[in-house]
């Protein structure tokens, strides 16, 4: 069953054509990685999936809802579609534990004892149970990103979107975040759509790779096929540049 489906989607910023004729299906439980040069439309595409960016034409179906339909309640979508950003977006005036408990308390009206139990289990899962009472300012970038992931998981979403979650981190912080993401990807129930420059992560975790350039999808292939023998010339060029660094 499709969790996300783009049908003939177009997106513009004024005269700039940001997404061009996007047709893409992502099945429930699939891990799909979006790669491509900077400015190729990857982040714009992922941000349309939870309504942070609106599309101008076509259909975008997420969890059975048409996002282009004005009657669609975006808050319902966001309950089931979590997002992890490049820059964490934690509340600096709340402890790590409070950051994780806040949305389930307000949105899901989750029982407080259960909410705390789930939040602590998630902090354990991302290796930060000892930081529960710390403020975000006391954490490293990698730790903040792991808290942000735990916060998204606290809503028990069907789908998680990651928009370049490691690109703002120091190199030695990246491994811990990718390890947590790998573990989530192994959970067969979770659908993941990940924008990343981490090719080793894509090779290890993705079921499929989508290559984008200039707002269009130029290749959509299984991970093995894509990295062994990309068909698109632009994709070949991109991979040769990435491999040489």
UniProtKB/TrEMBL annotation:
GO MF annotation, one: ATP binding
ABC transporter domain span: 4-239
CDD domains recorded: ABC_HisP_GlnQ
SUPFAM superfamilies: P-loop containing nucleoside triphosphate hydrolases
Keyword Nucleotide-binding among record annotations: yes
Keywords: ATP-binding, Nucleotide-binding, Transport
InterPro entries the UniProt entry points to: AAA+_ATPase, ABC_ATPase_HisP-typ, ABC_transporter-like_ATP-bd, ABC_transporter-like_CS, MetN_ABC_transporter-like, P-loop_NTPase
Record-linked PROSITE patterns: ABC_TRANSPORTER_1, ABC_TRANSPORTER_2
Pfam families hit by this protein: ABC_tran
Phosphoprotein among keywords: no
Family per similarity comment: Belongs to the ABC transporter superfamily.
PANTHER family named in the record: AMINO ACID IMPORT ATP-BINDING PROTEIN (PTHR43166), PHOSPHONATES IMPORT ATP-BINDING PROTEIN PHNC (PTHR43166:SF4)
Identification of the protein by name: Amino acid ABC transporter ATP-binding protein, PAAT family (TC 3.A.1.3.-)
Species of origin: Fructobacillus durionis
């Amino acid at each position: 069953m499709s969790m996300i489906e783009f049908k003939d989607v177009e997106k513009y910023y004024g005269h700039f054509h940001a997404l061009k004729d996007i047709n893409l299906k992502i099945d429930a439980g699939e891990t799909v990685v979006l790669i491509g040069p900077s400015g190729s439309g990857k982040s714009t595409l992922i941000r349309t999936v939870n309504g942070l960016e609106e599309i101008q034409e076509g259909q975008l179906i997420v969890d059975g809802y048409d996002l282009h339909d004005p009657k669609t309640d975006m808050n319902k979508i966001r309950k089931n579609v979590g997002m992890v950003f490049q820059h964490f977006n934690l509340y600096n005036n709340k402890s790590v534990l409070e950051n994780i408990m806040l949305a389930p308390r307000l949105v899901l009206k989750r029982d407080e004892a259960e909410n705390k139990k789930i939040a602590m289990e998630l902090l354990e899962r991302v290796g930060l149970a000892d930081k529960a009472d710390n403020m975000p300012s006391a954490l490293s970038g990698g730790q903040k990103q792991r808290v942000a992931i735990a916060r998204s998981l606290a809503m028990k979403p069907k789908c998680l979107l990651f928009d370049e979650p490691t690109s703002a981190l120091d190199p030695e912080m990246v491994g811990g975040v990718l390890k947590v993401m790998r573990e989530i990807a192994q959970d067969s129930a979770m659908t993941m759509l990940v924008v990343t420059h981490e090719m080793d992560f894509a090779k290890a975790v993705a079921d499929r790779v989508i290559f984008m350039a200039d707002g269009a999808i130029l290749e959509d292939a299984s991970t093995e096929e894509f990295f062994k023998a990309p068909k698109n010339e632009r994709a070949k060029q991109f991979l040769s540049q990435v491999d040489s660094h």
